[in-house]
Amino acid sequence: MINTKNLIWTNLNQVSNIPNHVLIWLNDHQSLTAKLKQKFNHFSINVLSQIESFVYANEAELLDWNGQSIVREVELLGDNQVVVFARSIIPITNDTKNLLKIGSKPLGEALFNDKSIKRSQLQITHTHDTWGRRSIFTIGSTQVLVSEFFIKNLYAV
Questions:
Q1: pTM value > 0.85
Q2: Which three-class secondary structure state does DSSP give residue 91?
Q3: Known binding site for substrate: residues?
Q4: Over the stretch 1-31, which tens digit does the pLDDT of each residue have?
Q5: Structural domains for the chain
Q6: What angle do CA 32, 36, 125 make, to 5 degrees?
Q7: Can you say which residues are annotated as belonging to the binding site?
């Protein structure tokens, strides 16, 4: 698990020092779930938590949301190794009621299978050996924040 509380985020187009083997994962607008299923023989998801919780100040500010939210943290596994840690902020609204029922299914599948959902530009962060990206998905009038952190195991395979 990664502490995402105090990370510095920058728009992708303003970052120039990203290694190519990382950039192909960060600068991708397709479903990460679909891409991982293509790369690995066995893909699975481990839901670490999905609870109503306070969100970090930088998340609330980006979403411009002070209401109740579900914080969902998961590990995405490729061939039984953690390759991505994801943290999603899902405001509790009528727009998100179906998302909140997905259980152990990947959030990305739900977001990318609905063509009415729009995605914002990508923001990037780097901490220690881990690169991350985040973006906002707009569902109706509700914004959902999805942050994904690419673990070194992803590139080693």
A1: yes
A2: strand
A3: 72, 107, 148
A4: 677 788 889 888 888 888 888 999 998 878 8
A5: 19-156 (3.40.1410.10)
A6: 50
A7: 72, 107, 148
